[in-house]
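Q: Could you write out the predicted structure for this multi-component system? I'm mainly interested in how the pieces pack against one another.
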Amino acid sequence: MNTIVMVDDSSIQLRLYEQMLKTLPDTEGVPFTSPIEALTWCEQNRPDLMLVDYNMPKLDGLEFIRRFRLLYGETPVPIVVVTADIDRELRRNALELGADDFLNKPVDDIELRTRVRNMLRIHEHRRMLANNAAWLSEEVRRATASIADRECETIYRLARAAEHRDNETGDHVIRIGLFAACVARALGLSLGEQELLRLATPMHDIGKVGTPDAILLKLGPLTAAEWQIMKQHAVAGYEILRDSKSALLQKGAEIALSHHEKFDGTGYPFGLAGDQVPLSGRIAAVCDVFDALLSKRPYKEPWPLPRVLEHIENESGRHFDPHIVGAFKEVLPRLLEIRNRVAAVHAGALGESFYERKIA
Amino acid sequence: MNEKSLDLSVLRTIFEDDVLEISNLLAEVAKTVTRVEDRLTEASERQEWTSAGKLLHEMKGVGASTGCVEVAYLCESTEADLAAHRYDRIPGRLQSLRSACNRLRVAIREASVREPA
């Protein structure tokens, strides 16, 4: 049913319009002699067409159109202005304010019906277009989210594959991402940056896929030669991830390359110091060491928490950026909570529960 | 009935010969014409030409839409004189309009008698 709001200070005119529109199918006229009352009605209801007299006391047609146009956003309701004036300026003003068509007084019934029918058709098409646009937009959003989810899942599984060799559960990659996001939040980074770090940090050790088992899983200390090979995983990870158009992979490459650099310049592969080390690498360094020391590895038993914290404190200004250590300490309770949560869930089921987009 | 005063074919077309609806509407037209005529007389006596112009516009609109040809025409002529500031012509115009209104009322009465609901 199409609703046509008719506004004219003359009840006789309204009665005539009502009668003229009677023959149009599925059409209902809602008459108002007061433009203010019409606007109030329109605040609660959405007509399909507005038929408004230009010359009205209290609120003329132009002011009415201006106020009416503020009521609805997209898919504007068509407005037909009825006027006895043929003044060009008036018509131009009305068009500028959003009038769609004019009818001359005295209104011819056939002309009125024809114009109203045409306007309703145009309105219907506009509405269909708007609905299609909204539907398409939603589909694009879903498809984009789905692609992003798949990208994240692929990266996560890749990172987990690399991690799997020296950490059976592979949950280190999940924790380190969540830790990095928490630290980033404490540092005041944007939500987008926090999210990027959450997803990219798990790729830090992806270069280990190229590290031989004999070195990666060696129980005793590494020889100097073995260390050289071990260190190559940073560059190897960077090589795997670099040159991607994906911001996520670019960030992953940056972290893979820089997470073993140290604040005092004694790290590898380049011996960068201070701010030369990308922020993502400095964050990943603290989170990686924190989680690694608390965890069992083929070559070590887990350290108790106080010892880990003491180590991090001692390395502040040497291995770690003191600013990052400060943020880390601020969110430590949250990091421990995350560790407990991750430990409570088997690695095989982690994908779903820890792939939340938002960090609680 | 004076067809110059009231051209019933206009309303007959719109209302598809529904005499009851036509009578009701004509009764409202007669009331409106009388009300506007009274206010028009007051406005012209006080030489409130802006108000007079609005009233003439209203009466012209009602007249033109309902087949009250003579009243609509006289309103339009008077509006034109007002717009051109030919105020000396207004009393004569209003006198003619009053006579036309009287004829219209008679025509409406006749139409209602002739076409009972």
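A: Regarding packing and overall arrangement: Chain B touches chain A through 18 residues (CB under 8 Å).
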